[in-house]
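Entry for the shared binder. Reason: the reviewer on the internal report wants the predicted structure included alongside the sequence.
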Amino acid sequence: MKIRRHAAILRVVRERRIESQDDLREALADDGFVVTQATLSRDIRELGLAKLADPKGGAYYTHPHRPAVRPELAQVLPALLVSLDGVGPFLVLKTASGSAGAVTEALDQADWSEIIGTIAGDDTVLVITRSQRLREEIAARIQKLVR
């Protein structure tokens, strides 16, 4: 049942804009899945869904690893970035719980040449740059996007 429910959740957020857990719960009920708020919260966390801010207003759930989703840094960072720090060529971004994947996807899509690679955990992103100077430039660029 859980696997089918997870598949239904992913399909729903792919096919339409879901702005709240209540919207998602109603959409699932239409598909025959009756879930509690606690179960839905757990499902959202397990699936790695992220809530992205819409520049036109509001926010919506999305699955950051879905290829069709191209989150932009300007949307993702202000909503999900908690802090950043670094040493040498390594920049560490702390994100809201479960949001590192969305931030990493957005960074990867930005295709900044100074970045060699990124690694995402649950709430932490490791950004590897080519030098300390470039790490500082990337940190400044990210801070500018957050403001």
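Summary line for the report: Residues 73-146 form a domain with the Gyrase A; domain 2 fold (CATH 3.30.1360.40).
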